[in-house]
Amino acid sequence: MKAIRFHEYGDPTVLRHEDVDQPVPGTGQVLIRVAATSFNGVDGNIRAGFMQGPIPVALPHIPGIDVSGTIAALGDEVTGLAVGDRVVGFLPMTGDGAAAEYVVAPAGILAPAPTGIDLVDAAALPTVGLTAWQALFDHAKLTGGQRVLINGAGGAVGGYAVQLAKSAGAHVIATTSARTADRAKAAGADEVITDAQESDAKEREAIDHTGVDPVDVVVNLAPIDPARLAALLDVIRPGGVLVNTTVWMPAPSDEPRGVRGIDLFVRSDAGQLAHLTGLVDSGALRVEVAQRVPLAELPSVHAQAAAGTLPGKTVIVV
Ligand SMILES: NC(=O)c1ccc[n+]([C@@H]2O[C@H](COP(=O)([O-])OP(=O)(O)OC[C@H]3O[C@@H](n4cnc5c(N)ncnc54)[C@H](OP(=O)(O)O)[C@@H]3O)[C@@H](O)[C@H]2O)c1
């Protein structure tokens, strides 16, 4: 089968489009004929070798932690799934990924693909959708009537976080760059705080939260510096929560005021993913895809991401 692999860590030029053996599902696993995977920031970090501690992969490695596709074969002891089922999943990050014609996945992580959108576009959902869900509901225990500030809301996780928080009945304040303010508004944010101009990271650090009335929850999705992250504690009411996804800097806490900082590490959860695909099918959750790119061009997607020029959530069509 065709796959993209890297044989050594490095810049996007280490990614090769090549022929590899088709994997065989083991006990409890299924073989998926891949419709699409999607690009996530962590893919670039794994390829660059920055994640060898927390996410050790064997080389050569096939990237792509999201998958949408059709079950092509079942391993032993798989129940509840059948050949031909259309599924989505957030794959184990240490195994081979879905930038390939076929991938093997544990049966227990898969959810039915949404039926109301293209199977290809469904690859945009698993990792970032689960991240948004787990930030808001597993970690922050967000409930209706609470106030939540989503910092970096114009990105992929942010789009889902705004929609999900709004559906839960929360008051949603989003911070974005000028480039993505409309995206956060369309996702349903009650307030959008944005830079006046499309600007570089330095100016974006200047987003000012001091005028924001206290919130119960802050979800940080932006690669801001640790001092700015700590400053976000000031807008959280006593007893509130800061959930941080940019885990290379630990989430700060404010113990005297009972404000807890939580580092989020997304985990696969088939039940939560099935809930999210159900929301997509009921029209309660919109999947946004900025571009669809053929598998052979995955290296250029990694290069765009490294250059900071990705236009938004990118699905890789196999
Ligand atoms: N820990 C985990 O398990 C986990 C899981 C998933 C994701 N993540 C991390 O969570 C973050 C969000 O993921 P994503 O897929 O949504 O990424 P994304 O689509 O690239 O979104 C990142 C967001 O950060 C904003 N941003 C970038 N630089 C900024 C700055 N200097 N100041 C303010 N905002 C800035 C971007 O704004 P604009 O788009 O408006 O320019 C964008 O909204 C990423 O860092 C990702 O690596 C972690």
Automatic annotation (TrEMBL):
One of its GO terms (molecular function) is oxidoreductase activity. Residues 10-316 form the Enoyl reductase (ER) domain. CDD domains: MDR_like_2 (cd05289). SMART domains: PKS_ER. InterPro entries: ADH-like_N (IPR013154), Chloroplast_QOR (IPR052733), ER (IPR020843), GroES-like_sf (IPR011032), NAD(P)-bd_dom_sf (IPR036291). This is NADPH:quinone reductase-like Zn-dependent oxidoreductase. It comes from Actinoplanes xinjiangensis.
